[in-house]
C-alpha cells in the first residue's frame, strides 16, 4: 500500500482519542474510532486539547476542522472498519483481548489493510501469531501523552514485510511524529529499555541509602537530564571519546545495579499499597492538588519545548 487515507483506531480511551487527533492533522485522512461502548470522542478530545488552544498552538477553528474528520462507531461491520487502510489498536493491555480484536478485524478489513498495535510492552509477534497475513502487522508504540510526545516506535514482528514497515514509517512522519524503527521484537523495544535501565539504577540508589528519592531526581534534572534532548548518550560518548567511555565502564559497571528482578524496595512498596499517584504515596507523598499540578506542568513543559 503506497498511501493511507482511511484510518481506524480501535479503542476510544485517552490514548485512542489522542492517536485519532494526531492522525487528523492530515486533511486527507478520514478517521474512525471504534469501541464496544459509547464514547464521548469530541468532548474528550476538546478537554485534552484545551492546553494547546490556550497556548495558541491551535485555534478553536482548527480544532473544529480536525474533529470533523474523526467519527465514532460501535459497529464493527461499519464502513469505517471495512474500508480502513490502516488500523491502530489501542485497547486494554490484555493479550487475549488484543488477539481476539485482530481476529475480528481480519475477518472484516480489506486484504491489504495494515494492522498496528499500540501496546507499550506486549510482543507484536505474539499478538499477531494467529493472523493469516502477519506480513502486514507491526507494532506502533505511541508515547504518553500521545498528542505531545513525538516518538512512535515502529516495531517489526518476526514476519513484518519491508513494505509494511516503510508504509507505517511514512504514515507516522506524515502525521508529524518522529518514528523510530525497532528491527527486533524485544521486550521494552528501544526507549523503554533505556528508560527502565535508568529507573532500575535510580531505585537501587534509594534502596541502598546512597541518596533519597528527591536527591536522585534533583541530580538527574540538573545534570545530564538537561542536555539529553540536544546531546543523546551515543553522541555524548563520541564527544568525550569512546576510549574514555570504555575506561569509565571498565571501572564503574561492576558497581551498577544489574538485577533481573524488581527491586526489593519496589516490591515492599507494592505490598504496602504505596502506588504513587494511584494511592497518594510512592517515593513521594502526593495530594490530589499536587497530582493535578504535576500532570498540568508536564503538558505545559512539553508544549513549551515543542512549540515555543
Automatic annotation (TrEMBL):
The record marks 141 as: Important for catalytic activity. Pathway: Lipid metabolism; butanoate metabolism. Transmembrane segments: none annotated. It holds the Pfam family 3HCDH_N. It comes from the Bacteria. InterPro entries: 3-OHacyl-CoA_DH, 3-OHacyl-CoA_DH_NAD-bd, 3HC_DH_C, 6-PGluconate_DH-like_C_sf, 6PGD_dom2, NAD(P)-bd_dom_sf. Keywords: NAD, Oxidoreductase. Belongs to the 3-hydroxyacyl-CoA dehydrogenase family. This is 3-hydroxybutyryl-CoA dehydrogenase. One of its GO terms (biological process) is fatty acid beta-oxidation. NAD(+) binds at residues 11-16, 35, 93, 98, 120, 144, 278. Residues 7-185 form the 3-hydroxyacyl-CoA dehydrogenase NAD binding domain. Residues 188-286 form the 3-hydroxyacyl-CoA dehydrogenase C-terminal domain. The lineage of its organism: Bacteria, Bacillati, Bacillota, Clostridia, Peptostreptococcales.
